[in-house]
Amino acid sequence: MSPIEPSPDDSPRRLPAREHRRALAVRGLSAAILCSVLVGACAVSLHGRGTRRDPAVAKSRARVVRDSMTAVLERAVRDGAFPGAYAAVGTADGVIAEVGVGKLDSADTQRPNAQTVWDLASLTKVVGTTTAVMQLVQAGRISLDTPVVRYLPEWTAANVAPITIRHLLTHSAGLPAWRPLYKEAENSTEALQQIFATAPDTLPGVRFVYSDLGFILLGKVVERMSGETLSEYDVAHIFAPLGMTDTRYLPPTAWRKHIAPTEIDPWRQRHIRGEVHDENAARLDGVAGHAGLFSSGRDLVRFARMYLGRGVVDGQRILDSATVAAITRLQDSAVSRRAIGWETPTGGNSAGTRLSRSAFGHTGFTGTSLWMDPGQGIFVLLLTNRVNPTRENRKIGAVRASLADAVVDVWASGRGER
Hints:
By secondary structure, this protein is of the alpha+beta class. Helices cover 36% and strands 12% of the residues. The two termini are 41 Å apart.
């Protein structure tokens, strides 16, 4: 595996036997908590639309959810999956329960909270790039089935003419997963030249290969068709309207004390904090379609509420409801379980086994993940710095699945969906 090749956590997979046993143990612990804490409170939904809302019952149920989340995450800290984590569960109406565990770093004992800022890694692909592309699609500036070269004629590599925007968004363009741009190029201009010289190694639409390169190209399409840099576009059209004031590329130095440190990076020869962990994104000056965004729990809660609210939160519309439906729909099950940008549950990926078939989500190499389930009306957000101090720590996969399952076990029992 190359130094920054996408983690197996970013692709559908089956858990190794050892991690599977650990996940089952955690789920058992969560079930025990569920049975011992206010079982009678599981009679109604917390925030389900059109259901009875008893404040006392809602408070009790929230405590059950929070206790289940805490059990999973504190066990993960003890197991060395990450130094610290923040997790939140909620609906389109707001947060049901949130918890911070552990510490930011061995040298920084702050407990993570909703204001802690994290390197989102590949969550950039969906929070920023996919949302931006689909805004431009609904505005008529981009068409999903138009060849990419129509927007980026400088992409002159062999056999790229048939590749469409949809192919890039679903990782079915036939492009390689990755190349070491940070080693091949001395600056961002040279790195882009390397990308425009990259040819597919299979025909588009034939197979799934999770590709950072495809999303770097999508970021450039956003810039070309909007007339703004990717950073400017995302802030002006997504983050500022949503009130996501902690979300941006290239966070200022003043934020550093609130940012979770990531890896002691062998390439840069220092501990990374407040600058993008992904080396290729760093070579692209910290702004790229595949990685580079930083954000907080409170901001991503608003983002998740927007998607569950069919494109609107607190009266602010970011996407049309039809666009949200198109984004989250499975595209071609013969090739993969991908929606537009987003992944869908496979039974062996970070969604766990209990989210409904309508769920969609994504992970990030640094230890982040976000899943939203319109069928059950909830989102599950997990933010960690699992690459601290090294990316060789692979324990995050089982934790993601266990957290999702523990939450849905509580949620489904309260809605009579056992």
